[in-house]
Predict the structure.
Amino acid sequence: MDGAALVLAATREIRSAVVAAVPAARRRAFTLREALWLGAGFESVDVDGERLDEGERAVRALAAHLDERRGLRTPPAPPARRWFRPTPDPFDIEDGHGRRGGAHRQALREVDQAARELGRLIAGAPAAAR
């Protein structure tokens, strides 16, 4: 994690554990959903307006963009829940492990979708509105 351009986690709890283990990673650590939410408006260009390649420079530029926007936007409200289950954090992808097959498949779909969106964002495609 010391040299990673961007550190992504499924939940805020995991992101916090990463930062506790490697404090220097704080500016580069986000949940997948948080990265997409903060990534709105990111343009994959350098200071001279030249398009960055899809490699490490673009990922580092995205991490800097995300860190600059952290705390400037009000987080989305968590979805309402019924019964006794706690309200999920809107930036978390709930772990489907140990739950019924549908929950596990749902978690995999959410990770796949978020990873694809993040790839498009790094490649310079406009971010989906969140």
